[in-house]
From TrEMBL:
<keyword id="KW-0342">GTP-binding</keyword>
<keyword id="KW-0963">Cytoplasm</keyword>
<dbReference type="Pfam" id="PF09107">
    <property type="entry name" value="WHD_3rd_SelB"/>
</dbReference>
<dbReference type="Pfam" id="PF09106">
    <property type="entry name" value="WHD_2nd_SelB"/>
</dbReference>
<dbReference type="InterPro" id="IPR036390">
    <property type="entry name" value="WH_DNA-bd_sf"/>
</dbReference>
<dbReference type="InterPro" id="IPR005225">
    <property type="entry name" value="Small_GTP-bd"/>
</dbReference>
<keyword id="KW-0251">Elongation factor</keyword>
<feature type="domain" description="Tr-type G">
    <location>
        <begin position="4"/>
        <end position="176"/>
    </location>
</feature>
<dbReference type="InterPro" id="IPR009001">
    <property type="entry name" value="Transl_elong_EF1A/Init_IF2_C"/>
</dbReference>
<dbReference type="InterPro" id="IPR036388">
    <property type="entry name" value="WH-like_DNA-bd_sf"/>
</dbReference>
<dbReference type="InterPro" id="IPR057335">
    <property type="entry name" value="Beta-barrel_SelB"/>
</dbReference>
<keyword id="KW-0547">Nucleotide-binding</keyword>
<dbReference type="InterPro" id="IPR050055">
    <property type="entry name" value="EF-Tu_GTPase"/>
</dbReference>
<dbReference type="Pfam" id="PF00009">
    <property type="entry name" value="GTP_EFTU"/>
</dbReference>
<dbReference type="InterPro" id="IPR009000">
    <property type="entry name" value="Transl_B-barrel_sf"/>
</dbReference>
<dbReference type="InterPro" id="IPR004535">
    <property type="entry name" value="Transl_elong_SelB"/>
</dbReference>
<dbReference type="InterPro" id="IPR015190">
    <property type="entry name" value="Elong_fac_SelB-wing-hlx_typ-2"/>
</dbReference>
Length: 630
């Protein structure tokens, strides 16, 4: 079964050129709903009407206000348009608002269009030809240069059927908006009805919504529920991308929200006030564009004050394409990479330029070509390249943060993760094999260096290793360690990591003196001197003694008796076995002294050592063997 397609056709043009009348002629619906619109005979709010309905396709028309004072509403309306009918009255020709609408449509990237010359009943045959020639000449160099031109009259009906057929034919070649991914509806109208509560209207930019769905209003973060959905006044179980929809929201007061907010289905949309953009400027604007000038920023249905920030210039006066710069807004809005925008001068009102958002989560950058190069890489890079660039900085990124920072859909990410080299850590973090391999190399280098500097130790403590790999995240480090262990490049024991085939050993230059020390300790049997004296006698420097001491213990060559004394390991074991063989299950200190011939100086620490090693347990003045021959 074919998926149903939804399209929106926009009527644009100068005030009083017949957009509303043409919409009525095409749809039999008057889109001027307000009393003031009727009285003043101009469109103030966006008007909508169903145009065409088939089993596999639905087309709606949006009537955009043409008056200069309502340009912001015009911009809000064009955001969801797939095809434009540029309306020009034959008796007046192209007027200032026609040109401004053309500029805005061009800056918003809307190039699918039809030109409708209206009010044909008001002009004679000669004027018709003159009007056609004038329009074609004026449209040269614009996105509508080669757009088909239709002569129509909304009163007599001339050309209306031809225009209907042309709209249907043109729509066939336009890609349908995706209903996959997360739902987003920028709000352009809000009202409240008694007994129903808050209702919002807008064109669904992407995704779909079903009755009862949980939604969020951004940027406020207000949770709500889609109690009811209507498409062109008719109740519907769901709304899809490309449709004009009204949603009755439960759990939110209409006074809490405003035009420009967005209804979304997930948290994977950027709420931001700093946006990196590719800006196209218009020619002939007053005083040009200057560094940090105040502007009105329009995207979707949002209109926010902000500042324009350049990184490679302080002003521009010519029409230019793709200036890489930044918009810093006074309030937060909801955007994605690829969204189109318009900037206007607040006073006197003037459209300055527009373009598309290359990064919704901009940061503060330095002025200079280095920043421009980075922004160009972000603009031109594929999703994969943008993620890799981000991972070079962060090493691993939570899925939700990645979707926001790189402006991906969940489906895009899942498709990417199925490609070789991409790794999901703990079902939450994303990284790449290149990052892991870089981390593995660093781990091996750190451990090898540690072995070189501390040949007597078994290896490096895992906590110390982590502290020496600050540029990598803990998730990447742990994953890399596990891979190295599986590959038998690294081994771990009791939290200590070593190169797999590494064996602790005495430095060759000290080996003879250490053997001499151990021999002297063994000769003194149970009546040893402080261990420090043995080190001195062997000529081992103070800076090495502690490291050698712990190495001897780790190799089970010696065993500490107390803080100052140690026994040769064999001597200690022999004494333990002798004592166990000549005493009952319980014995006291006097018996032990007589059997081993030791003074209290040695006997007390010896017995405490037995307790520490788990050979005995003290009960009052006696010791009890834990493991005893029966």
């Amino acid at each position: 079964m074919l998926r149903k397609r939804y399209y929106t056709v926009g009527m644009a043009g100068h005030i009083d050129h017949g957009k509303t009348a043409l919409t009525k002629a095409l749809t039999n619906i008057d889109t001027d709903r307000l009393k003031e619109e009727k009285e003043r005979r101009i469109s103030i709010e966006l008007g909508f009407a169903p145009f065409h309905q088939e089993e596999d396709m639905q087309i709606s028309i949006i009537d955009v206000p043409g008056h200069e004072r309502f340009v912001r509403k015009m911009i809000a309306g064009t955001g969801g348009i797939d095809l434009v009918v540029l309306v020009i009255a034959a008796d007046e020709g192209i007027m200032p608002q026609t040109r401004e609408h053309l500029d805005i449509l061009s800056l918003l990237g809307i190039s699918n269009g039809i030109v409708a010359l209206t009010k044909m009943s008001k002009v004679d045959a000669e004027l018709r030809e003159l009007a056609k020639d004038e329009v074609k000449e004026e449209l040269e160099g614009s996105p509508f240069e080669n757009a088909p031109l239709v002569l129509v009259d909304s009163i007599s009906g001339e050309g209306i059927q031809e225009l209907k057929d042309l709209i249907l034919k043109s729509i066939e070649d336009i890609p349908v908006r995706s209903s996959e991914g997360d739902f987003r509806l920028p709000i352009d109208q809000i009202f409240s009805l008694k007994g129903q509560g808050t209702i919002v209207r807008g064109t669904i930019y992407e995704g779909e919504i079903e009755t009862g769905a949980e939604v969020t209003i951004l940027p406020q973060g207000i949770k709500a529920k889609a109690r009811q959905i209507q498409v062109h006044g008719e109740k519907s179980s769901k709304g899809c991308a490309g449709q004009r929809a009204a949603i009755n929201l439960a759990g939110v007061n209409y006074q809490q929200i405003e035009r420009g907010n967005a209804v979304v289905s997930s948290s994977l949309f950027s709420v931001t006030d700093t946006i990196d953009v590719s800006l196209n400027t218009l020619g002939g604007i007053k005083n040009g564009l200057k560094q940090r000038m105040e502007i009105k920023f329009h995207t979707g249905t949002s209109e926010v004050m902000g500042k324009l920030v350049f990184f490679d210039r302080n002003k521009t006066e010519q029409a230019e394409d793709s200036i890489l710069c930044q918009i810093r807004l006074n309030d937060k809005i909801v955007v994605k990479r690829g969204d189109r925008f318009i900037i206007r001068r607040p006073s006197p009102s003037e459209t300055l330029g527009g373009g598309w958002i290359i990064n919704p989560s901009g940061k503060r950058y330095r002025f200079g070509q280095e920043t421009i190069s980075k922004l160009r890489a972000v603009m031109e890079g594929s999703a994969e390249e943008r993620i890799l660039r981000l991972l070079q900085q962060k090493k691993s990124v939570p899925v939700q943060s990645l979707i926001l920072e790189v402006s991906l859909t969940q489906e895009d990410l899942e498709e990417l993760l199925n490609k070789p080299g991409w790794i999901m850590l703990r079902d939450t973090f994303v990284t790449h094999i290149s990052i892991v391999e870089s981390c593995e190399k660093k781990i091996v280098d750190v451990i090898s260096t540690y072995h070189d500097r501390h040949p007597l130790e078994k290896g490096i403590n895992k906590g110390e290793l982590h502290s020496m790999l600050e540029s990598f995240t803990d998730t990447v480090i742990q994953f890399s360690i596990e891979r190295l262990i599986q590959q038998k490049q690294v081994s771990v024991e009791n939290g200590v990591l070593r190169i797999h085939d590494f064996i602790p050993s005495l430095p060759s230059q000290w080996e003879k003196r250490c053997v001499q020390l151990l021999h002297s300790l063994k000769e003194d049997n149970l009546k040893v001197k402080p261990i420090e004296e043995y080190f001195k006698e062997a000529g081992i420097p103070g800076s090495l003694r502690q490291e050698f001491y712990y190495f001897f213990i780790g190799q089970e060559w010696i065993i500490p008796l107390d803080e100052k004394h140690a026994y040769a390991y064999e001597t200690y074991k022999k004494a333990v076995n002798e004592l166990k063989g000549k005493t009952d299950r319980r014995f006291n200190i006097t018996e032990a002294k007589e059997l081993l011939g030791l003074s209290r100086k040695y006997m007390i620490p010896f017995l405490e050592r037995l307790d520490k090693d788990g050979h005995t347990v003290r009960i009052n003045d006696e010791r009890k063997w834990i493991f005893y021959r029966e």
